[in-house]
Amino acid sequence: MARLKRLVENEHGVPPLRGGHSLCQGCGIPVVVRTVLSSLPGPAVIVNATGCLEVATTRYPTTAWNVPWLHVAFENTAAVASGIESAQRALRRRGALPDDQEISIVAFAGDGGTYDIGLQALSGALERGHKFLFVCYDNEAYMNTGVQRSGATPFGGRTTTSPPGAESFGKAQRRKDMTAIAVAHHIPYVAQATASHWDDLSRKVEKAAAVQGPSFLNVLTDCPVGWGHDPRTTKTMLDTAVDTHFWPLYEVVDGIYNLNYRPEHPLPIEKWLEHQSRFAHLLKPEHRSHVEEIQSQVDADWNDLLAHCE
Predict the structure, then answer these.
(1) Distance between CA atoms of 99 and 114, rounded to whole angstroms?
(2) Is this structure's pTM higher than 0.85?
(3) What domain range includes position 290?
């Protein structure tokens, strides 16, 4: 109960992200933001890339934020976060900031600002070893600008730039494994989480904030508009992604893999696809082979993860 209370409001009795923002009904992003910020041990400075979160929480002349917040471009989110971290260290050297005053630096970006446009800055900041937490809220497309495909869009997914039709079956490429890319930078903490498994996400934030160096959280966050499902089924959509092994919950601590959740009764990938209109074309008889291909790849990725966790 103490953890749950902490996730509702901060020590001053106010939420870090207040209501009244214009994020869509059923959007998982505010759940992620509130869980992350309320799980930190102290105050935080937020760096926010352009995207759904930025646009919907800061419409002039209002803001939904109750914490220090900076809006930056798609491509430089991690660079700005690393600059703030460097400034903190400089202030401590000068005695202008107490050594025992921990101020977390948290960067939020969607998959477009993480997997694609912001990848170069993120890679550089991770490689340099700046102490900050980068949170990707991954809704698997450029939702803010009209549902265009991104590096996170799943194979076969329908977007406005990967439409199914006579000459196409949706996105022709597999999604990037951004979590593995972060792990390859040999940073202290990397994890996958979802907006629906809030307790798992909260514990991972606590671990990420405690490490000396950069940390990265890849959080699956749905978009009812882009995915094409009833907003009331958001939790079900995200839980099914986990239970089909499409989105495993795991962490990598100093290079050691830990599986955080193993579905007791794994579901076939079709159970995740069938309730999203972006995959409706794949369920037609002529595209059955693509569903089988997706299932085969999900199984291979799951077995590879299990091998890493042994």
Answers:
(1) 31
(2) yes
(3) 2-309
